[in-house]
Amino acid sequence: MLKRRTFIAAAAATLLFTSIAHAQYKDEYTVSTVLPSAFPWGQAADKWVELVKERSDGRINMKIYSNSQLVSGDQTKEFSAMRSGIIDMAVGSTINWSPQVPELNLFSLPFLMPDYDAIDAITQGEAGEAIFAAIEKRGVTPLAWGENGFRELSNSKRAIHEPSDVEGLKIRVVGSPLFQDTFTALGANPTQMSWADAKPALTTGAVDGQENPLSVFDVARIDQVGQQHLTLWRYMADPLVFAVSNQVWGQFSPEDQELLKQAAVDAGEWEIEKSRAELDATLAGIKERGVQVTELTQEQHDAFVEATQSVYEKWTPRIGEDLVKMAQEAVANSRQ
Ligand code: X2X
């Protein structure tokens, strides 16, 4: 009797051990993105998938679902879907995840980051680590940074040189209510809608303008839907984050976790470098197609900074005083 019980216990232990040692991997992991392969964002995801497949000798397969299709086009639901395990992985924008991770609104604070050095100083420093910790705490494991880019303002009505030019314009904005506040502070009439709805709304004239990186403006041919005026104001940039649902992350062996992470870091670096390098050519192409591009003088730039100060007052406590300060210091140091 005793022998038999010992045997059963031993068999059960063996079974348990085996199932831990060979955690059943899925045949395919879902990867959500908003923008598909024609855009740097989609290319970042493609690269990640390719590197993981190659480095795992085909053991880990990921399949990309773009255009936010796994969340029926509502990109602001991507984070929740990942957290609950409906989506395994994603390459997502900080804007789209900010409703669930308030710290991500940091990047949307107007005119916080004047240039690429400033973005890198935040993402690659302590502030970046604090943000990754905030993401992880909410159920998703962040692995690496990518970049959507500096978001520039376009519209169908007039050249924008100063805040009063924005007054009364209906502007499509995305994601966080912070954008509502920024554009309201400028006297515009902001409307929140998904990317899927943005182009139709521009086409019908339901909205007058939008803000997106030059790569998005270019590839999506936003000039063809009447957006003839483009102001380069660099008011914010949205990084991308490569991430895995915590529910899925724990199933990978430590070696495979490292493989997934390193592949994401490599894909992110590749995409950031590529999209920055392509920016000048992209802008030249946009100008060639007849878009009126406005650059701001220092004075005009300062007027926008001034006009959006209220956004800091309202949002700093929500993002976290310490985090905002840490980021501002990182930016200041990057300018020395
Ligand atoms: O919806 C947008 O504007 C886009 C594509 O840039 C994002 O997903 C943040």
Description:
The structure is a single chain. Helix content is 50%, strand content 18%. Strands 1, 2, 3, 4, 5, 6, 7, 8, 9 and 10 form a ten-stranded mixed β-sheet that branches. The radius of gyration is 22 Å and the shape is globular. Strand 5, helix 8 and strand 6 form a beta-alpha-beta unit. The chain has one domain: D-Maltodextrin-Binding Protein, domain 2 (3-Layer(aba) Sandwich). Helix 2 runs antiparallel to helix 12 and helix 6 runs antiparallel to helix 15. It has 15 helices and ten strands. The model has no long low-confidence stretch (mean pLDDT 94). The protein has 336 residues and is of the alpha/beta class. (2S)-2-hydroxy-2-methyl-3-oxobutanoic acid (X2X) binds next to helix 4.
What layout of secondary structure does this protein have?
Elements: H1 2-21, E1 29-32, H2 40-55, E2 62-65, H3 78-83, E3 89-93, H4 94-97, H5 116-123, H6 126-137, E4 140-155, H7 163-166, E5 170-173, H8 177-185, E6 189-192, H9 195-204, E7 209-213, H10 214-219, E8 229-232, E9 237-245, H11 246-249, H12 254-288, E10 292-295, H13 298-307, H14 309-319, H15 321-334
Parallel strand pairs: 1-2, 1-3, 5-6, 5-7, 8-10
Antiparallel strand pairs: 3-9, 4-7, 4-8, 4-9
Helix pairs in contact: 2-12, 5-15, 6-15
Bound molecules: (2S)-2-hydroxy-2-methyl-3-oxobutanoic acid.
How would you summarize this macromolecular structure in one to three sentences?
The protein has about 325 residues and is α/β, with parallel strands linked by helices. It is built from 15 helices and ten strands. It has a single domain (about 25-335), classed as 3-Layer(aba) Sandwich (D-Maltodextrin-Binding Protein, domain 2), CATH 3.40.190.
